[in-house]
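retry 2 of 3: previous attempt timed out while embedding IPE. Reduced batch size to 1 and resubmitted. Inputs unchanged:
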Amino acid sequence: MKRIKLPSHIAFIMDGNGRWAQRRFRPRGYGHKMGVQNMFKICSHAFHLGIRIVTVFALSAENLKRPREEVEELFELFRTYFAKKREKMLELNAKINVIGDLSALPEDIRESMADIMAETEPYTDFLLNICVNYGARQEIVAAVNAAVSYGRFVDEHSFGELLLTAGLPDPDLIVRTGGELRLSNFLLYQAAYAELYFSNKMWPAFSKRDLEKAIESYSSRDRRFGNIREEQK
Ligand code: IPE
Ligand code: IPE
Ligand code: MG
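retry 2 succeeded.
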């Protein structure tokens, strides 16, 4: 890859698993399985390229409305990668942080997530945030209620500290695969100035080269944050 400006924090809306599988006459669950494998590949590559913070949207709060069977298959994948094959997670050499309302998850999954988070807590090179049963509106409403309960007015910074991403820089680049042009309740507050990149590839087919193309697009953009460039002043 040519010399480029890397995002410090990249976030992925990993969409398209179901369609990817159905186009191959396979069940949706197979798409989720291949999607998780691709998540490991793409996250490792992002870290390898020098991106230190990666956030992935693994399960939205609204996804729990899907048929029970599909939700169970997704839970089983969490079981696999947080417990049975936890070494795959540890091999990333990243601090793992699970974000979302975990109270809806079976207890054994919650415990294995807590174990992985505790075990990787000392890792300082890379951070992987995994959003599970996450919804941005729910996150914002919870933060407002927290502020009200403390009886405090907030500013942009202190409000950010009440969000599930407290202490993290905002994502510089949000990549959505699967061809849809929307955020689907992902990081709505934090995405205020994120660069957006949409790929028509279904998530299981999103390759390392596709990631590099997204980063090259990011690198070529002029982020003005509402200001004008020095030479325009
Ligand atoms: C994204 O893939 C993964 C989850 C939402 C869990 P989808 O399951 O939404 O796949 P499509 O969009 O139906 O193809
Ligand atoms: C967004 O994809 C959620 C995840 C990728 C986890 P969805 O498939 O749930 O989004 P919609 O329904 O197309 O908006
Ligand atoms: Mg989808």
